[in-house]
Amino acid sequence: MASKAFLIMIVVATIAAPPAFATDYVVGDRSGWTLGVNYTAWAEGKEFYVGDRLIFKYAKGVHNVYKVNGTAFQQCAVPSPSEALTSGSDVITLATPGRKWYICGVGEHCASGMKLVITVDSSIAPASAPAPAPTSGGPLMHNKKPMNFWSNWKLKIHF
């Protein structure tokens, strides 16, 4: 009996839970990860959530990406070369909330402004609202009667 109740709870939770959608952010948008971009301005107004992904696009061999702490960020202290991301299309999934700091470790790139700090919200990314159904201004109609989505939907569970 307990397993039936558990199964019903799972089905209800699956149906009732709104889907969450992660967002992919190309750092620097069309400019990518390069010199001459104001990454503070780029991040301004963006809301980052757990599950979102940062994509660092740059010419391989010209730049790199390091995830650092706040002190290393301020000082542009480059960690060990083994910690560098160097593919030219590095993807970082934001797995935990809090402040995140990234720098380029090539030459004086960090000191020239090639650094990014963001804050990841502790909640999961909000679900996107579904596009409204085209209507003539009234409720959804079926046979000229208002149609309730849930009235025609039935859950049958057989044990």
UniProtKB/TrEMBL annotation:
It is found in: Membrane. Residues 23-122 form the Phytocyanin domain. Pfam families: Cu_bind_like. Keywords: Copper, Disulfide bond, Electron transport, Glycoprotein, Membrane, Metal-binding, Signal, Transmembrane, Transmembrane helix, Transport. Its main location: membrane. It comes from the Eukaryota. GO terms for biological process: response to symbiotic fungus. The keyword ATP-binding does not apply. SUPFAM superfamilies: Cupredoxins. It is a single-pass type I membrane protein. One of its GO terms (cellular component) is plasma membrane. GO terms for molecular function: electron transfer activity; metal ion binding. InterPro entries: Cupredoxin, Phytocyanin-like, Phytocyanin_dom. Residues 1-22 form the signal peptide. PANTHER family: BLUE COPPER PROTEIN, PHYTOCYANIN DOMAIN-CONTAINING PROTEIN. This is Lamin-like protein.
